[in-house]
Amino acid sequence: MEGQYTTSFQLSTKNRIKEIELHNYLSQWKNKHNRNRYYKKEDFCYDGFMYNTDSNAQNILYIFDYKYNDRQSMNRIWKMQRFISKHCLDYNITVDSISYLILNKTNSKCIDTKEYVKNFEKQILGEIELLSPSIIVSCGCYKIVKELFNKYNKSHFLSAINHIPIIDMLPPTIQVSSKLYQLHFEYLYFRKFGWNI
């Protein structure tokens, strides 16, 4: 029993340290954001881990252009996560091992996401490295993410993350039924990883 308690403590401490590192990283990013003449009057949207699972589960990273808080979007994200946790046998993934990254940290539709990404490319890659996901699900912004990865393909910025598979998924707000949305995701997932995963 003592060994189990020690292991649990070590894992929870490791997760807390990782969350603190991410918070400090985003705080530094926010300072650069606030010093930029185009964004200094805009809000800064924090993101990262959704839950501290106190486990060694590997996480799935969902990347969005903006933050989606509506019920439909959240339900769709959770359904995708449940599907991955059930079918992805190559990684230790749970329903709660989930993280998210907002490309446009202003979370403002008035600010062009592509322009924001150009100004903070290295910060975005650094955050992905800190989150260290097993799989990336890019929801509606695959082209931006792929171009970013391609640009830094031979750079040390991608040395730790260039092997991560990326699923090109639709944005969660798209006007289709949730059932059709989920079926489309499952099709993309199996096309990416095959039927035996």
Give a verbal description of the structure.
With 197 residues, this protein is of the alpha/beta class. It is 48% helix and 11% strand. It contains six helices and five strands, in the order H-E-E-H-E-H-H-E-H-E-H. The protein has a five-stranded mixed β-sheet with strand order 1-3-2-4-5, sandwiched between helices. Helix 1 runs antiparallel to helix 4 (121-131). Mean pLDDT is 85; it is low at 1-11.
Comma- or semicolon-separated keywords:
197 residues; five-stranded mixed sheet; 6 helices; 5 strands; 48% helix; globular
Question: Quick gist of this model?
Answer:
This protein is of the alpha/beta class. It has 6 helices and 5 strands, in the order αββαβααβαβα. It has helices at residues 2-35, 71-87, 113-119, 121-131, 142-151, 178-193, and strands spanning 48-49, 60-64, 98-102, 135-139, 166-169.
Topology overview:
Layout lengths: L1 H34 L12 E2 L10 E5 L6 H17 L10 E5 L10 H7 L1 H11 L3 E5 L2 H10 L14 E4 L8 H16 L4
Parallel strand pairs: 2-3, 2-4, 4-5
Antiparallel strand pairs: 1-3
Helix pairs in contact: 1-4, 2-6
